[in-house]
Each structure stands twice: as C-alpha cells, then as structure tokens.
Amino acid sequence: MREHRDSVTAIGDALVARLVELEPTKPEGWSAARIEAREALDHHVHAVVSDPVGPAWLATLAAHPNGMIRAIAVGALGSGHDPAHQPILVRALSDPAANVVQAALEGLTAQSSDEVFDLLVTLLNETDRDRAWLSRGAAQRIAETSDPRRLDVLADALGRVRHGAAHDITRALSRAGDLRVAPVLIEHLRHRRPGRFAAAEVLGNLRVAEAAGPLIDVLRESDGIQALPVVEALGKLEAPDAASAILPLLDHDSSDVREGALLALNRIGGPLATPAALKATDDVHPAVRARAFRVLAKHGDHRALGRLAAACEGWHVHTALTGLVRLADDSVALTVVQVLLTTDERRVRKLAGRILARIGTRYHLPGHDPDPLVRRAIVWIIGQRADPAYIWTLTNALEDEDELVRSRAAAALGRITHDKTIPLLTKALRDTRPRVRANAATALGRTAPTGLRSLLADALVDPHPAVQSAAAAALRATDH
C-alpha cells in the first residue's frame, strides 16, 4: 500500500515539478511543452482522484504556491462532487487566483452552495474586470440553491452582468416562472441597463403583459440585431401596440431580423400583418419569404388570396393551402382543383380537398381520374358537400376498381337525402370487400329508409364482424 502511495505521489510530484519549471516569464507565453505538461498533470490528477491515496495528495496540491497547480487540484477534487472534498472547494472560493475560484465553482454541490450563498452573491456582483467572468459560474450555483433570496438576487444582477452570466440567469428565471421578479426586470428596461435585452427575454417567457410598453420603448431605441430578444418577447406577449414598432425591422439588412419581425407579427396579428407579409413575400431571402407566407396563412384577409393562390404552384403550397382553408373563397377553386389533380403529397391533397369541400363543388371535378388517390379525394369532397347533383358520379364510383373509392362513395351516399341512394346502397351491401359493405350499412342507417331491418338482414349475418357491427349500429340509431 505504501509503495502504491509513493508511486502515485512520485509520478504526480514529477509532473507538478515539470509544469512549474516551464512557467513562462510572460503570462501569454504558452509553449507546446508547457501545454503538454499541463495536459499530462490534468490526466494524472483525474486518474488518481478516485484512488484511496489520491485525494490526500490532491489536498496538498490545493495549497500549492502556483495558482495553476491549485486550480488543477481543485478541479479534480470537485469533478466527482464528493461531499468529503467540498470543504477544500469552499476554501478555494476565496483564492486570489480567479482560475482556482472557477474550478471551485464548477465542483460545488447544491448543499455547499447553500452554505456559501453570500460569497456566491459577492462573486456574482464582482466588479474587477479581471475577475468579472466568474459571475457566470456564481450564477449557475446560485440558481441551484434553495435559498429564498436566489431569484431576487439573480433578477437584480441581470441588469448589469456580462461574460455569459446573463444566459444562465435568463434560463434560471424563466424556468422558475416566478412573476415576483417582473418589477425588477421592468426597471432594467426603463433605466436602459446593460442587461435589459436579457430581461426582455425573461419577461416574454413569463408572459408579463405589463412589460409591453417598456419593451416597445426599448425596441424603438435599439438596433435590429440587438433588439431581437425584445421583438421575440413582444411576439410572445401578443401585444397589438407593438406591431407598428416592429414593421420598420422588415427593412433591416439582416435576414434574421426580418424573419424575427415576421415571427412576432405572426403571433400578434392585427390589421398591419397582411400588408407587411405581402411585401415580405418578395424578400430576397427564402427563410423570410417562407415566414411571410405563414403570416398570410394565419392572418391574411382577402388581399392575400391572389398571393396565396400563386404560391400553390411552388414550394409554399402547403402553407398557402392552410391559409386558403381558412379564407374559403370561391375565387381560388380552379387553382385548388389543379393542385388536387397534380400533387403527390398526401397532406397537400387533404388540404385541397378540405378547401373544395368548404367552397362548393360547382367547379369541375373530373368524374374519373387515372390516379386512385385523386378519385378517393374527389369522392370524399362530394360526400362532405352532400350534393345530390353528384349522385351519378357516386354511382360510377361504386363500381370503381379501388376499394377505398367504393367505400367512400357508399359513405357519401349516406349523406345525401334522395330516393336514388337506397338501391345504390343496397347493391353496395353485396360488394366483395367488407369495408364497402360496412360503410353501405352505416349509410343506410343514416338515410333510415322504410324497411331498414329487411334491407340489412344479410348484413346482420355477414361473415365479417365489422359489417355485422355496422348493421347493428345502424338499426340501433334508427330505434332512438
């Protein structure tokens, strides 16, 4: 055991001596040999930290005169978050070398952070420019504590922190979801503090409606790129008054800013959204154009019909059809029929079908198309409209070679109140496929003709259970 301990310390001491020997005369002087020596020592300390004799040797290194050696030792002791090593890390928080303090911060447990909360707050608010970067590690540890002051401390610090700490504080405050920090954050906006953009992000995540006015004021005074968190926050708040302040960003040089502005407008909506999005559909950047079509699809009025219809011939067809479903205007019927007949995308075909079902079927729908997918869609559209004028089309569809076309035709006939549908559905009860027979039985139940039980007699003893169930359900529906 003693030989093993001596071996561990001997190798480690040699590596320490080598690194100290290569200490540069100038702070920025890092030779290849020194980099190699540091990596070798770092590898060794992490290898022996779990060794029975390793921690004791590392504890002596934590008090070494050389700051880099101390930092390496403290980092190794904290790597496993072992409670036994926490006292050494706590002492290291007061080390004059910033890299030692950082190593200690990385290894602190939540329990230890609770015990040194006030010291962490001091590190968070560090004003020394050479040590200010420690604020990020301090913010991370404060966020993990159970101290009731932690959110107030982080919210207050957000107005002035830099060096990456703002990101960690923003995430911590957003996840906590405590609205009590909102007044402090709004003050950061009103006083134009350095952390106001991070504060804006938190206020948006927390959906603080009272922040809309201060956010708009900050947006009007900010550069586009810098103000993106403010734009995003206003979008999340869905603040109608923000639209006029966001519009000028659509002329910004950065495509990210223009896209961010459209994203916010998409959430806000209002009368300014349509003309702004119409203009943006001509943007040189494809991501901006795509975002503009989404705005038109969600908020566009009659002015957007032409642009959405034109977009059905390009990459944005799905988005355009989403808007046309909402608008449901007869003027685009022929365009939508063409999409229905030519697309090879199922989701696009379904949207086209929904539009035609809403606006009517007086526009030409082919009675027979070579593609069974198109024939299925056409029969479904006719069924949704329940138009007796298309009984002849459904009659032919019942003879279609495609099972789903016949099945949908039977279902469509059940939506039409007309004497001619009864013999057609009765014939469909003898189809070779159980799906068609089941739909025919259900359709007869909807029309509820006289003598329904007699018509469904064979279906009630059909070899397929789905047909039997459909027939029984049809009879039950007419009994109520």
Can you describe this structure?
It comes from Amycolatopsis umgeniensis. One of its GO terms (molecular function) is oxidoreductase activity. With 480 residues, the chain is mainly α. Among the domains are: 108 residues, Leucine-rich Repeat Variant, CATH 1.25.10.10; 64 residues, Leucine-rich Repeat Variant (Alpha Horseshoe), CATH 1.25.10; 110 residues, Leucine-rich Repeat Variant, CATH 1.25.10.10. It is built from 31 helices and no strands. Helix 1 runs antiparallel to helix 2 and helix 11 packs parallel to helix 13. The chain is elongated. The mean pLDDT is 91.
Could you provide a short overview of the structure?
The protein has 480 residues and is mainly α.
Work out the number of β strands: 0
Query: Under CATH, the topology of the domain at 371-480 is which?
Result: Leucine-rich Repeat Variant
Q: Give the second-level CATH assignment, the architecture of the domain at 371-480.
A: Alpha Horseshoe
How much strand? under 5%
Q: What is the highest CATH level, the class of the domain at 371-480?
A: Mainly Alpha
- Indicate the low-confidence ranges by residue numbers: none
Q: Report the average pLDDT across residues.
A: 91
How large is the radius of gyration? 36 Å
Structural class: mainly alpha
- With helices defined by DSSP (H or I, 4 residues minimum), what is the helix count? 31
Largest beta-sheet characterization: none
CATH homology superfamily name of the domain at 371-480: Leucine-rich Repeat Variant
Shape: elongated
In helices, the fraction of residues equals 55-70%
Distance between the termini: 90 Å
